[in-house]
Specification:
434 Repressor (Amino-terminal Domain)
C-alpha cells in the first residue's frame, strides 16, 4: 500500500486554513514533526492518528488515504453546488442543502462560511429569523478564531460587522470588529507601493494594487461628498459635480488599464448615478433624474453581463428597493422610470 499520510495532512491542513504550528499544538507535537510528516521524511506514531483525524473531522482511514479520493470528489461536488447557490441567491432550500453539507463536513471552513453567509441573508428580510442570525454570528466568531488565513478571516469579519451594524444596531460591537482589521497603512497594496514606487513590480501586482486602492478611494470620496460635506440646497449642484468627477476617475482607471469592465467598478458607478438622481429629483429636474437612473441601470447591467466577481442579481436586488422611495413619486409614472424599474426587476431575478 502506498502511504500518503503526509500529503493528506498537508492537503487537509491547507483546506482548514491552519498553520503547522496550530496543528502541532492541538495534537501535542512540535511544528518540526508536522513538517517532517508533510515532506514524507517520516510518519506520525500510531497513537497520534486518532487526534489528527479528529482535528480534521475525518476518519483514520480517510487520513491514511483510504477512499479519500471519493470523499474529496464529494467535497468538490459540494463546492460546485455552493458556487451555484452563491450565484443564484439564497433561499430556504439552498440553506437546507448547506446544512446537510455542513453536517457531512463539519470541519470544512469553506462550507461553514457559506452556510453562515446564507443565514446572514435573513437580515435583509422584512421579518428576519433572529435565531438564524444568532446562529450565523456564533459560526462566524468560531471561524474567525479557528482560521489563520487572513483573507478568509476578512470575509468572516465583514459578514459579522454588517450583522452588528444593520441588525443588532450595536455600534460598539461593530467598532470592535472593525478594529480587528489592519488600517490601510498596513495592507499589502500600500507596502508594495511604498517599497517599490512602481518600479520592478509584477504587472498583476500593479493591477491588483491599482484596483484595490482606486475602489477604496472612490468609496471614501463618495461617502465624504454625500454625508460629510454640507447638504444645504445651494450645495446640491456642487455635490453633483463632485460625483461626476468621481465617475470620470473610475472611467479613467478602467480606460488606462484597457478594460471596459473592471470587476466592481460598474456597481460603484451605478451607485454614484443613483446619488445624483436623488439630488436631481429633489430639484424637480425630471429629465436629469431619469437620465441618471438610466445610467445607473446601464452600469448595473455591465456588472451582470461583464466579468464582475460580485453576485450580479444581488446587486440589482440591492438597488431595487431605492426605486420605491417616495422621493421618486414625481417621476414614477414616467415611461422611462417604469422601463428602468422593469429591467431592474428582471435583473434581480
Amino acid at each position: 500500500m502506498n502511504i500518503t499520510i503526509g500529503e493528506n495532512i498537508k492537503k487537509l491542513r491547507n483546506q482548514k486554513g491552519v498553520t503547522q504550528e496550530r496543528l502541532a499544538e492541538s495534537i501535542g507535537v512540535t511544528p518540526q514533526a508536522i513538517s517532517r510528516w508533510e515532506s514524507e521524511s517520516g510518519y506520525p506514531a500510531i497513537e497520534y492518528l486518532p487526534d489528527i483525524a479528529s482535528f480534521f473531522g475525518i476518519s483514520v482511514d480517510e487520513l491514511l488515504g483510504i477512499k479519500l479520493s471519493e470523499r474529496e470528489a464529494r467535497r468538490e461536488s459540494i463546492y460546485t453546488t455552493i458556487e451555484h447557490i452563491e450565484d443564484c441567491g439564497y433561499n430556504p432550500s439552498a440553506i437546507d442543502l448547506l446544512r446537510e453539507a455542513h453536517a457531512e463536513f463539519p470541519s470544512d471552513m469553506k462550507i461553514s462560511l457559506s452556510l453562515a453567509t446564507a443565514l446572514c441573508s435573513e437580515m435583509f428580510e422584512d421579518n428576519p429569523n433572529m435565531a438564524s442570525l444568532r446562529e450565523a454570528e456564533k459560526m462566524l466568531r468560531d471561524l474567525i478564531r479557528q482560521s489563520d488565513d487572513y483573507d478568509f478571516k476578512f470575509k468572516c469579519i465583514k459578514n459579522l460587522a454588517v450583522l452588528y451594524k444593520e441588525v443588532w444596531k450595536d455600534e460598539q460591537g461593530y467598532a470592535e470588529l472593525v478594529k480587528m482589521l489592519p488600517s490601510i497603512w498596513s495592507c499589502r497594496e500600500m507596502f508594495i507601493t511604498d517599497l517599490y514606487n512602481g518600479a520592478n513590480q509584477d504587472k498583476d501586482e500593479i493591477r491588483d494594487c491599482l484596483l484595490t486602492l482606486s475602489r477604496c478611494m472612490t468609496n471614501n470620496l463618495r461617502d465624504y461628498v454625500a454625508y460629510i460635506l454640507p447638504n444645504e440646497e445651494d450645495k446640491w449642484d456642487t455635490k453633483i459635480g463632485y460625483f461626476e468627477r468621481i465617475i470620470d476617475f473610475l472611467k479613467f482607471i478602467s480606460g488606462i488599464m484597457n478594460e471596459e469592465k473592471v470587476a466592481g467598478f460598474g456597481r460603484n458607478i451605478a451607485m454614484l448615478y443613483r446619488y445624483m438622481a436623488t439630488y436631481y429629483v429633489a430639484q424637480g429636474k425630471k429629465d436629469e433624474t431619469l437620465t441618471s437612473l438610466e445610467n445607473m441601470l446601464l452600469y448595473l447591467e455591465k456588472d451582470v453581463y461583464g466579468t464582475s466577481d460580485l453576485q450580479p442579481h444581488n446587486e440589482a436586488w440591492y438597488f431595487l428597493p431605492y426605486m420605491e422611495h417616495e422621493r421618486y413619486d414625481p417621476v414614477r409614472e414616467e415611461k422611462r422610470f417604469v422601463a428602468i424599474k422593469e429591467k431592474m426587476e428582471k435583473l434581480a431575478k
